[in-house]
Amino acid sequence: MPIDATQPYDDNNVFARILRGEIPSKRVHEDDHAIAFHDINPQAPTHILVIPRGAYVSWDDFAARANDAEIAGFVRAVGIVARAAGLVEPGYRLLANTGPHAHQEVPHLHVHILAGRPLGPMLMQ
Questions:
Q1: How many CA atoms within 13 Å lie on the side-chain side of 37?
Q2: Which of 29, 33, 38, 110 is catalytic?
């Protein structure tokens, strides 16, 4: 069920629990600002999630409250993961859903890295 990205942060959301090590994940990257792991329900041959370590619900929440080091570190982590996975050529898609209209399901900022086949149009008509 999509969530409202304006709601307060929920410390018991699945990504918060992954960050605390309460739920296992197949991690591909970890640093001071972000972790990246394979999605358990992949929508493409390569489907990796990148999440900040901080408690942020959405991009606007992150942009408003994160410090410059967190922002730079998170954005850098997305690029590091894409390069390490060999996705720069032939390409990949970044997707971040915010709020119910975009079908955000977990109330923790996350970026999907999707690749491994032609992904088609951005939005289905």
A1: 18
A2: 110
pLDDT, one tens digit per residue, over 80-125 is 999 999 999 989 999 999 999 999 999 999 999 999 999 988 876 6
Dihedral Cα 102, 110, 67, 21, nearest 10 deg: 140
Q: Is 110 a catalytic residue?
A: yes
Number of other CB atoms surrounding residue 109 within 10 Å: 26
Q: Is the model's pTM score more than 0.85?
A: yes
Rounded CA-CA distance 104/100 in Å is: 6
* Structure confidence by residue, pLDDT tens digits, 11-63: 999 999 999 999 999 999 999 999 999 999 999 999 999 999 999 999 999 99
Q: How many CB atoms lie within 10 A of CB 40?
A: 12
Residue in 77, 75, 76, 54 with CA at minimum distance from that of residue 66: 54
Closest CA to 59 of 118, 125, 122, 112: 112
